[in-house]
Specification:
Elements lengths: L2 H63 L6 H83 L10
Helix pairs in contact: 1-2
Length: 164
């Protein structure tokens, strides 16, 4: 095996390895995209829950000052207990929402890092493909020069073999 052929073989192997790394980085990007989508869905759901607790608290307050006012003496303790329950649930969901927003932020940061890694791997793969192209051209030139030398040594005029 000529040194040029060995170089071409090595460069082809490098291209295959770089392609594998690029695909792995792409899979990581997809996983991070799914993670971001799941975190977004969790945040949206939690925001809906917080809004729902607010709506229930507002409805209870409207009932207390409206239709429930005449019977407030009879329903004061359960109404206050219900209001307190709604406040606690809203507070818990607001805390969970803050946590989920931090998780979403982290997922987006991880996605950005994964995308940057994929771009770097893609550039390395492209560079390896360029090296393979260059090595292939060089090997082809060396082969042509060897054939020309062999033909000259054999006494065959250059280009005569193309007429056969």
């Amino acid at each position: 095996m000529t040194p040029q052929a060995a170089t071409v073989r090595d460069r082809a192997q490098l291209v295959r390895l770089r392609a594998l790394r690029t695909r792995a980085a792409g899979r990581r990007c997809e996983a991070c995209r799914r993670e971001v989508a799941e975190a977004c869905a969790a945040v949206e759901w939690r925001e809906w829950r917080v809004a729902e607790w607010r709506r229930l608290r507002a409805a209870l307050a409207a009932w207390i000052v409206g239709p429930g006012a005449p019977e407030l003496g009879r329903f004061a303790a359960p109404a206050m207990s219900r209001r307190q329950h709604l406040e606690e649930q809203q507070e818990r969901d607001e805390v969970a929402l803050r946590d989920e927003l931090r998780e979403l932020e982290g997922a987006r940061a991880r996605l950005g890092q994964a995308q940057a890694h994929w771009v770097r791997e893609r550039l390395r793969e492209d560079e390896a493909r360029g090296l393979l192209r260059d090595a292939t051209r060089a090997a082809s030139l060396v082969r042509e020069e060897q054939q020309a030398t062999e033909m000259a040594e054999a006494g065959t005029p250059r280009g005569a073999d193309t007429w056969r």
